[in-house]
User: Which sequence fits this backbone?
């Protein structure tokens, strides 16, 4: 029997014991601003537009970043808890040691993002887009990703655990060593691009959904033996 592959170890954000309370002023956040060792609670940053912002050693709790446009945002050692990132666009952003928990990312767009040591838990990412993004030691746990877009993303070694992947698009992605555990697969597209990944399902229904998706990708028609009687 082959040895069990060790679980991906994801480094957690490194935060100071005491963080400074930060209040966003009337001018909001401007290009190249740096927020370091701070905590933001229930801040309204919706529709914020800025470039090259750096946030490090920070905790954001129940903050609204919906509709924000933060090009080349850099996040290092950051916790996002119960935050709203719906319809935000963070193109070419980077995240290292990032934890996202119980947050809303519906319609979030992160084209070209680079994520390292990132854990996303109990969050909604329906219709999110990560085209051409690169994931290194990233894990999605108990997340809903219906209709998410991972076209041309590098998912090497990424873990999806108990995630809803209904109608997710994986075309042209790279997924060598990626792991999918007890996920839902109804209508998943581009599954042929997941060559080299591991899929483990406890539910026979989810296993069947994977089989159907694979058959569709290979243009194979699954039929019943009764449809082919002996002459």
Assistant:
């Amino acid at each position: 029997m082959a040895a069990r592959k060790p679980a991906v170890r994801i480094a957690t954000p490194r935060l100071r014991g005491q963080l400074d309370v930060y209040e966003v002023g009337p001018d909001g956040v401007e290009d190249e601003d740096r927020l370091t060792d701070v905590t933001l609670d229930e801040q309204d940053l919706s529709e914020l537009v800025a470039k090259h912002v750096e946030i490090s050693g920070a905790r954001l709790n129940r903050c609204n970043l919906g509709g924000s446009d933060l090009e080349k945002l850099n996040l290092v050692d950051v916790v996002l808890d119960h935050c709203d990132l719906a319809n935000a666009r963070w193109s070419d952003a980077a995240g290292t040691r990032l934890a996202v928990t119980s947050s809303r990312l519906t319609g979030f767009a992160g084209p070209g993002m680079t994520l390292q040591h990132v854990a996303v838990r109990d969050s909604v990412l329906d219709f999110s887009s990560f085209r051409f993004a690169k994931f290194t030691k990233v894990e999605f746990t108990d997340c809903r990703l219906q209709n998410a877009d991972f076209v041309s993303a590098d998912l090497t070694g990424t873990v999806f655990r108990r995630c809803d992947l209904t109608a997710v698009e994986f075309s042209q992605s790279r997924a060598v060593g990626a792991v999918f555990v007890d996920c839902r697969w109804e209508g998943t597209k581009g599954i042929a691009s997941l060559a080299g990944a591991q899929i483990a399902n406890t539910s026979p229904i989810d296993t069947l959904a994977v089989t159907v998706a694979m058959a569709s990708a290979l243009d194979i028609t699954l039929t019943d033996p009764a449809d082919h009687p002996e002459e």
About this structure: The CA atoms of residues 191 and 226 lie 28 Å apart. The mean pLDDT is 90. The radius of gyration is 20 Å. Helices lie at 204-217.
